[in-house]
Amino acid sequence: MKKRGYFFTIDAFIAMGVMVIGLMLVLFSHTYTPYQEQTTVLANSNLKDLSVPTIKEVNANSGYMSELNTLIRNGNITQMDNTILEQAIEFCLTGREENASVIVGEVWTSVEQEQYGTSLWIDGLLIFDTATENPDSKFLASSKMFVIGYNATHTWGPINVEVRAWQK
Amino acid sequence: MKGKKGMFFTFMAVLIVSALLFSFAPQSYVSVKQKTGVIQARVDSSNNYVENVKGVYLERALRVASHNAIKSLVWRVNYSGYIPEANVQRNFSELVLRGTMDGVSVDSSGGCEACIAKDFMIDSNLTYSLEKIENASRDFLKIETVFEKDTIKIELFQDNTTGPWQVGARMYINYTIEAGLANWTITRQNLSTRFSIEGLHNPLILRSRTLQGGATGGWHDASNVSKIVVSNLTEYEYDKMSSILELGNMTYMFRYDVAPSFLQRLSPLVVPFEPSECCGMEVLINPNKLGYNSVALTASYGYRDKSYVDWCMYTLLCPPDDPIPTAVHQFYNVSGVSTCREQDNFFAFKLDANTLAYYGWENNGTQNATQRQPCD
Asked: Which positions ≥6 away from A157 have C-beta within 8 Å?
């Protein structure tokens, strides 16, 4: 009888050990993959943050000493109904890329996420980024659109715009 | 037997654990679930493009093409005369779509130097803009966009929504968008745009200056004088004499009862004439601004006995030419304004009775109208 008890006890321990090993295999076999959806959504969202609100709307929520307000007061920005993206493109078309970078940075800085990097490319030219993109970046998502603007006599564009987002 | 039972139970335990392992292992549906989010993002992106086409790209292309087409029509009047009313819509539509009029390019490169030669429509007609959109969507977004250019319908209008100071253009267009994952077919999309006429030339004044450009007597060659500048005053403030005259500048005012609209000025204004209820406008002529001196105001030029309102001065719709037998064919100077000195603003200025009453200058206590005293 005692020997049977030994056997059953040892059997129980073996069973428990097998179960523990099995559970450990299940729990720790989860492969870390980057969140593909989040970077795609971030790229789309950041593009909309530039292509939807107008200069007038963003300026209303900015302080008097903000960079955007400074550009308005010194006459660099005159079309208040332009979207941020349209104004950035107009700056690029007139050789004032640094101003484009400033107004984009003003918008994106307020929505920046620490674990993600984003960049804006206008007609293949890097205008602004929140972090340096490197070849080993985890999952990279891109959102594209083109912009057609107009002045009194002509339309300008289409100008290709791309926003990239990646996990750092 | 007992040893075999133990081995059997142990084997069963291992089997159960293995079954648990396999049942919680990652399944293929998880990676598909991840792909679904990306696919949704691509469809959202394509949908954003469709919304941009509907609400932004087409409207801007139409607005610029329409604005330039109106400028082309005005300059056509300047060089070749007024456009028959029945042809205005057709000419406008052709200009907007293809940048041509009666099949001939209005650009100087098209050999039409005598008629337009202003190159307004170069790279701004609608067909060109639509092709740019098609190419950009295909090359950059990998989305196939096809606009049915042969079935596009364009209309020019002025109505209560535009008022006298804007012109509107309406477009009906069909197109398809294929984005691989999703397709859109838009049938007879109706969109309209409006733009200000301020800064455009008044066809009446422009044409009259062209016709009389070779005359002697000190005609000014300031083409900007025919440009439309809208007055700040509303129709309820016309008693503010000094504001209206504004140091001799000619500013345009709303005149709803008898005056033609901007679009009507593209065509001959003859009897019978239907004035624009919504969009009539007029400007009081300052002869000094247009370079009219006493020579120009002689009877041979026909301006001597005319009311100094643009559509009265350059047409036969007002006294003394209008055929209405009961019309009061009298003109009035306005004291404090009208002078007989050639160098003054509003030299020999005079108005007909109806216009005088419209602006409330009959007897306002400060500036009375007096029957015309000839300056000669």
From this structure: A89, A146, A147, A148, A149, B132, B136
